[in-house]
């Protein structure tokens, strides 16, 4: 596993270093108090800032004391942290203004080879404006006005940190636990053959089956190990669910509970296989189930079951494929396979596709690659200019995976039409390899990057 870049937070005591550290790591790992000198040892944590992953070091407040004293030894630890780091984040208190100690720290940082980013903390409101302006005198470039406590200024911090800690290729690995079992839920209308299919996969009569619809009531999870045709052994957690009928037809209380349980099973799954009945083709309820799976952000695979007894196979397959392209326009190209729970046809292929789909669903694109694609997409098709005022899109970042989720930052993004967002999503699917898994894309004004 690649070593994450290091960012050291430095500054005099009580400027908000630990508050910023806690915000970046997403937990209150560092003690925070109004009294100076609470932090003594270096504390490290894994941080994420709008898709950038790095290690952050919270250092003790830098004080001008004899090296043999406790503050002096703390300063030595701070200096060592900066020399190890890929970037140093120098925090000052904008409300207190510049102090002689701030100036001394700045002189020391200028003498080091580690890149320095200057941030004026506690800059919310008018009280911090003069301190932000004063900090230009430190000779460390443009200061970032921010509030670690309230989460303001993180977009500008992201922009300044990115050149130093972004590493193409390091952060495009799957976030998912590849050693963990594939959580695979089988869903569909009643009597589509879900339990029979799972029994065939397991090579045992693990689940009760029969011609009656609605035998399965509870969602049943079964841990199993799949030996792929190439000999690779991969763990799977198979989840059988109750058949999902059209909501208006579900009157029995027990069936309502069963369907609700099946929906919860979808929430906990990674990949969902929608099983169609090959003797009945595609029905409106199948499309509703598929749409719900995609809305929940799960990766979807569609399999036509009972293929061994299906009539007019070529016309049936092409007809279902065309209907899916039209009915699931938000995720064209969802894998469509043919299987038979009775004979075992296509089951290895189904499992292989499910693992491949999870890999795509868990994919992270490096920020550099993502923004290069973004710039080219905008150049090919610039956003519109409502009322003659141009919408300016600044950059894009991937904020999470499973499903892949992205945020665009810019100005007047509230006027960006849905059609343009669809253009970008379709481009990501085609050019960044996200295929037909759910992709979530939102746009935010640069000054208010996320709710805190």
Q: Would you kindly provide a written description of the structure presented here, covering whatever features stand out?
A:
The model is unreliable at 29-41, 169-178, 212-218, 248-255 and 448-452 (pLDDT under 50). The protein has three domains: 6-165, Rossmann fold (3-Layer(aba) Sandwich); 182-361, 3-Layer(aba) Sandwich (Rossmann fold), CATH 3.40.50.300; 367-445, GMP Synthetase, Chain A, domain 3, CATH 3.30.300. A six-stranded mixed beta sheet has the order 2-3-1-4-5-6, sandwiched between helices. Strands 8-9-7-10-11-12 form a six-stranded mixed beta sheet, sandwiched between helices. A three-stranded mixed beta sheet has the order 13-14-15. It is of the alpha/beta class and 452 residues long. 38% of the residues are buried. The protein is 33% helix and 21% strand. It has twelve helices and 15 strands. The radius of gyration is 28 Å and the shape is elongated. GTP 2 binds at residues 188-195, 240-244, 305-308. It comes from Sphingosinicella rhizophila. Residues 5-169, 182-362 form the EngA-type G domain. Belongs to the TRAFAC class TrmE-Era-EngA-EngB-Septin-like GTPase superfamily. EngA (Der) GTPase family. GO terms for molecular function: hydrolase activity.
